[in-house]
Amino acid sequence: MRHLRKHFNIDREVVFLNHGSFGATPKPVFATYQHWQKQLERQPVKFLGRDFDNNMNKAREALAAEVGTTASNLAFIPNATYGVNIAARSITLQPGDEILASDQEYGACEYAWDVVCKGTGAVYVRQPISLPAGTQEQMAAEFMAGINDRTRVIFLSHITSPTAVRLPVEAICAEARKRGILTVIDGAHAYGQIDLNLDTLGADYYTSNCHKWALSPKGAAFMYARPEIKDQIDPLIVSWGYGADNLSRSGSRFVDLLQWAGTKDPSAYLSVPAAIHFRVKHGWEDVHKQAKQMLDETIGRIITLPGFANAYADSSNYIQMAAIFIPNQFEVTDLKDFLYDQHKVELPVIQWKDHKLIRISMQAYNTEKDIDALERALQKAMRHFDIQASSGEAK
Fold first, then answer.
1. Spatial strand order in the sheet of 309-310
2. What is the mean pLDDT of residues 321-337?
């Protein structure tokens, strides 16, 4: 993947192993982004008043073709957390109703459900899923053991943020549909790592970022709603799309409610087709394979350090991002600062329940040198902080 590094603006002085947090945009896609911004500034009334809907519809059509649905089922939004908020606010809940989630969900989205629960009397339930992660079948069984007659909603990450586990959302969505339970899937890390077919995946609501693994500029994400329920959407911002006379703007009330929420710069959305083109042009299926191989190698090397341990029983449970248990003697903030300040290694150090983890991302710009640098930095960190962990202690 070395030949692709030249296409990214990532600082060459930094060992960047944290693509998962905010993504990175290739130079050609960034140039398209700037082109749209210049067009906006050149004639803002024409851009936003005359051309906006047509340009946005074309971008949605390109995205819809890649994620396996029709454009009328998709709306652009700023980020996946925004999408979870839309879904959470759109579902009618009664006191005692339960939202069943895993114990590995993204904290900001949990706050969204917390607000909804305070307003409705519903209850947010965290169902434990074992880590190290087992097979997809084992994880599905662990999660579905939490379903009861009060479960009204299932909220689940396609790929978890703190632990980078690919969860069996297809099987869980299918079971939920049989039981009449609504599903809200947080796919923040999925688009660009997993081939999506939203119409067959089975989720009622699905949201994902385009700016992470799919390489679009920051501020590009999408919201999907199953056709049978998309008219139940309750937008966070009420604007012109709310009026019945605006239905002709996109041909979809769902899209109209979400697409225009006042004046904003849509350049990130309009650059999504350029990001799709970049990935096709550079054979992203091979990039996935190479990144996965590098990540497998990285895990194999790092877990040989005393006190470090694999977070997965099956390597199929992660793709281009993975977590590793680290010795609990490390202080999370101290280790993160040491790795970056002393060695320019950028990656998350995470406290999850009673465990501490590092989360490693592999993207097209990473090379073997990054693995070497990470291993050296962790070895020096153990000496610096006088970590004397025995193997397996991190579990």
1. 309-310, 321-325, 355-361, 349-352
2. 97
- Per-position DSSP letters for 277-344, written without gaps between them: HHHHHTTHHHHHHHHHHHHHHHHHHHTTSTT-EESBSSGGG-SSEEEEE--TTS-HHHHHHHHHHHH-
Is the distance from CB of 178 to CB of 172 less than 8 angstroms?
A: no
pLDDT in tens, 85-110: 999 999 999 999 999 999 999 999 99
CATH of 283-384, one of 3.40.50.620, 3.10.450.50, 3.90.1150.10, 3.10.129.10: 3.90.1150.10
Tell which CATH classification among 2.60.120.10, 3.40.640.10, 3.20.70.20, 3.30.1390.10 matches the domain 28-277: 3.40.640.10
DSSP SS3 for 111: helix
- The confidence band for 228, taking pLDDT boundaries of 50, 70 and 90, is very high
Handedness of CA 109, 115, 118, 119 (dihedral sign): negative
Q: pLDDT tens for residues 179-197?
A: 999 999 999 999 999 999 9
The reply to whether the predicted model has a pTM over 0.85 is yes
